Amino acid sequence: MKKFIFTTLFMSILYVNAFSQKEYTVDKLFSEFGKEENVERVKINGFVMTFARFFSDTKGVTGVEVCAFENCGESVKQRFNEAIRNVKDSDYETMVSTSEGGNKTKILVKIKDNVVQELVVLSGGDDPALVRIKGKIKKEDIQKLVNENSKK
Q1: Strands 103-112 and 115-123
Q2: Strand bridging mode 115-123 / 40-45
Q3: Model-level pTM greater than 0.85?
């Protein structure tokens, strides 16, 4: 009988622990963490992006959204780091995922008709950040940008 009670208790704890982790979508990350105290959230789209095209080639980018966590408390940073480990969003595919020295970075893309509609960078660690770039971006433009910046 003791074995049965112990096994039931153990399985209950495992069940609660397994399902207590919250899953996040990209939109949920922006809406939840963008409202946190001292998180700097910047959103650029519409007129500003049209205006930017006069000064540089924006490669099909129509909007940029950034959440920076450098001025917020450690508890918010820790929750964000945990959240990016639990991102599950069927609209996006993982382009790159790295983990180095406690810093985790994921780059997700939303692709439609072989054109990148959104590129999302989830960066964890001591100085986390969340970046979303919207538009109609050709894959070769992304590769060209990566190649140019990796040489520097």
Answers
A1: antiparallel
A2: unpaired
A3: no
Distance CA 100, CA 102 (A): 6
The contacts found for 31-38 with CB under 8 angstroms, 24 or more apart, are: 32/83, 33/67, 33/69, 33/76, 33/79, 33/80, 33/83, 33/130, 34/67, 36/72, 36/76, 37/72, 37/73, 37/76, 38/71, 38/72, 38/73, 38/76
Quote the radius of gyration of the chain (alpha carbons, Å). Answer: 20
If you write DSSP's letter for every residue of 59-71 in order, what string do you get?
TTEEEEEEEE-TT
- Give me the residues paired with residue 61 across strands: 135
Q: Are 40 and 34 in contact (CB under 8 A)?
A: no
Alpha helices, DSSP H only, in the chain?
2-20, 26-33, 47-52, 74-85, 139-151
pLDDT tens per residue, range 87-96: 999 999 998 8
Q: Per residue in 72-86, pLDDT tens? A: 999 999 999 999 888
CA distance 106 to 121: 6
Q: Which of 66, 83, 62 is nearest to 134 (CA)?
A: 62
Residues 6+ apart with CB under 8 A from 144: none
